[in-house]
Amino acid sequence: MAETWSINVLEIGAKILCILVLILQSVLLDYIFISLDEKASTAGRYFWIALDVLIIIIWIISLIWSHRFFSKLTSPKRIPKGSGGLVRHVFKAAITELPFAYVSWLLYSSVLVAKILRMFSSPSGFGEALLKSPDDILLSPTGIKIVLSLAGILFGLLAYSHHNEVHNSKYKLIIDKLAHSASLDVLDCLMLISYLFIADSGLLLPYPMDKAIKAFGCMCILLPVVPLFALRYISNRQDEKTFQMVLALNSALYLLFVNIPLFSLRIILWVRHDADVTTFLTKNIMAIVRDSADIYLNTVGWLKEQKRNKPEQTDSALGSEEKEGGESVELDKMNPAAAQV
């Protein structure tokens, strides 16, 4: 009883902390945009506040809904095709997906990517020319980097808060692994984006390099939606093959779209621009080796499961045929006239 109570307190604390970190990052980023985005209109600068309030409300609702959904271990109800109009159908479908973390992260990461692109857009962006502020340490490249880095912490809290109630041990193993690796990869891409503070870093990047850093950095922030979406379909399943394919998919995505591209960009920054890339360059090498090994091991495991299931399917098919044959023989014995015909 005491153990269950402590687990519930931990779950509630994680959800509250998740919302508090989201509110903190949203407030700080909005303050930065209102203070520094001078080329935007007043309505444009305050538009971010409206978006952030909407995201916070959705996250609170989804965290509450996820507790109800996973604790009852129910599946989302299917919506009849003829029930209501299109708007009502879409609304009900969205509500049924709220327990799953991919919805929350998709909305949040889309807004965060939009803020980053606005921050470094030319010529209206303010990030490239930003220098250290003697008056407000938050309105400096270092302050903005710290605020953006909260996204890595936020993803780990989101994954834990949404899916800790699941009673599927393999599912929990995958979500824990994804939470740790994706959080580190989000920090990795944000460290790469920090080179876009040109006045602070002293690196005058060519146009293709600037676009590549923005593209792969933003892709890394959005990418966790894909494995989270895959996990949405296996929350109540115990199929070993499905879990192995999700793990292989997650490793392949991060190998092809995060670690290899970011490793390549860092090599170019090091060789051509003499940039300091030591720490996360080593992380990319380790991640490439890890992801390659995970893809191989999970693919081999999936193939073994496929071969193991084939004899079972064959035996079940033969058993059904023998059963049908036995039934036909019994019918012939019961009806000799029909057998002669």
Question: Can you give a write-up of this model?
Answer:
The structure is a single chain. The C terminus is likely disordered. This protein has 341 residues and is mostly helical. Helix 10 packs antiparallel against helix 11. The chain is built from 12 helices and no strands.
What topology does this entry show?
Blueprint: H1 2-36, H2 42-72, H3 86-97, H4 101-119, H5 141-163, H6 169-193, H7 198-201, H8 207-222, H9 225-232, H10 240-273, H11 278-334, H12 336-340
Helix pairs in contact: 1-2, 1-5, 2-4, 4-8, 4-9, 5-6, 6-8, 6-10, 8-10, 9-10, 10-11
Give short descriptive properties of this protein:
single chain; 341 residues; mainly alpha; globular
SSE pattern, N- to C-terminal: HHHHHHHHHHHH
Rounded to the nearest angstrom, the distance between the terminal CA atoms is 72 Å
Number of helices: 12
Sum up the overall morphology in one term.
globular
Oligomer: single chain
Structure classification: mainly alpha
Q: What would the average pLDDT be, to the nearest integer?
A: 79
Flag low-confidence runs: 335-341
Radius of gyration: 26 Å
Estimate the helix proportion, in percent. over 70%
Q: Which range does the strand content fall in?
A: under 5%
- Number of DSSP E strands: 0
How would a textbook summarize the main sheet? none
Summarize the entry for a quick read:
The chain has helices spanning 2-36, 42-72, 86-97, 101-119, 141-163, 169-193, 198-201, 207-222, 225-232, 240-273, 278-334, 336-340. It has 341 residues and is mainly α. Helix 10 runs antiparallel to helix 11 (278-334).
